[in-house]
């Protein structure tokens, strides 16, 4: 089963819960940026389902007739994350300090959903030019952004709120985006057209059901729109 990198922790727990209710079944997941898993599917990767973090990625797969029965199952939001001393106390302070700061910024690559969402959020905040002038890297997925911050390779970045929740005690400071600048990530899941749909639909039903949704909420995801 192919899934966006930001789903790793929640899908591992979902998989364990599903297996408890389906003795004898074993789910195997592969996580990467949504564009990467879509490319893997096009290249012939064997998978019963795929879950992406951006509707456009799934829509293209649907148009190519590679997936069936697309469902939205969760949402997410972006947050600023700062590593090290003297982070801004508010988004207003961030906006004042960023143009003249020596902060090293890291973002996900624009080819992946986290990068697209970050660019849109920066545009809404009027900070895209200042932020891109301080970029030290663009990572292949959102997990790479968080790892760069944790390893001291950057001072600030934009990640999903769920990724910070999955890294407790990391010594990071989180700053919420203003509501006017917030960009919601919409997660969609679908059965792969070339595979038997029974197994995929059973897990999709579990993810969208009461227990599955409770697990996703516990990991910080929002309800589907």
What's the topology here?
Blueprint: E1 2-4, H1 8-21, E2 30-32, H2 34-42, E3 49-52, H3 55-63, E4 67-76, E5 78-83, H4 91-97, E6 105-108, H5 113-125, H6 128-132, E7 135-139, H7 142-150, E8 156-160, H8 161-165, E9 172-176, E10 185-192, H9 197-208, H10 210-218
Parallel strand pairs: 1-2, 1-3, 6-7, 6-8
Antiparallel strand pairs: 3-10, 4-10, 5-8, 5-9
Strand content: 15-25%
Major sheet details: 5 strands, mixed
Order of SSEs, N→C? EHEHEHEEHEHHEHEHEEHH
Helical amount: 40-55%
Coarse structural class: alpha/beta
Poorly predicted residue ranges: none
Q: How many distinct helices?
A: 10
What is the strand tally?
10
Alpha carbon gyration radius: 18 Å
What's the rounded overall pLDDT mean? 94
Strand arrangement within the widest β-sheet reads 2-1-3-10-4
What general form does the structure show?
A: elongated
N- to C-terminal separation? 24 Å
Characterization of the model:
- This protein is of the alpha/beta class.
- The chain has helices at 8-21, 34-42, 55-63, 91-97, 113-125, 128-132, 142-150, 161-165, 197-208, 210-218; strands at residues 2-4, 30-32, 49-52, 67-76, 78-83, 105-108, 135-139, 156-160, 172-176, 185-192.
- The longest helix has 14 residues, at 8-21.
- Helices cover 41% and strands 24% of the residues.
- The protein has 10 helices and 10 strands.
């Amino acid at each position: 089963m192919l899934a966006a990198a930001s789903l790793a922790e929640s899908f591992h727990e979902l998989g364990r819960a599903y297996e408890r209710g389906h003795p004898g079944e074993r789910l195997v997941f592969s996580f990467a940026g949504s564009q990467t898993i879509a490319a893997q599917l096009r290249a012939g990767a064997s998978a019963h389902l795929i879950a992406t973090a951006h509707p456009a990625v799934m829509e293209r797969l649907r148009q190519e007739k590679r997936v069936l029965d697309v469902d939205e199952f969760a949402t997410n939001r972006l947050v600023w994350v700062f590593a090290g001393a003297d982070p801004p106390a508010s988004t207003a302070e961030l906006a004042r300090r960023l143009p003249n700061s020596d902060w090293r910024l890291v973002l996900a690559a624009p080819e992946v959903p986290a990068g697209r969402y970050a660019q849109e959020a920066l545009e809404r905040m009027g900070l895209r030019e200042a932020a891109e002038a301080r970029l030290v890297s663009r990572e292949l997925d959102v997990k790479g952004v968080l790892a760069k911050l944790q390893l001291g390779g950057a001072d600030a970045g934009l990640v999903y709120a769920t990724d910070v929740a999955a890294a407790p005690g990391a010594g990071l400071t989180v700053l919420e985006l203003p509501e006017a600048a917030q960009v919601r990530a919409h997660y969609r899941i679908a059965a792969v057209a070339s595979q038997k749909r029974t197994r995929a639909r059973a897990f999709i039903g579990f993810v969208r059901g009461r227990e599955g949704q409770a697990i996703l909420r516990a990991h910080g995801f929002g309800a589907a729109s």
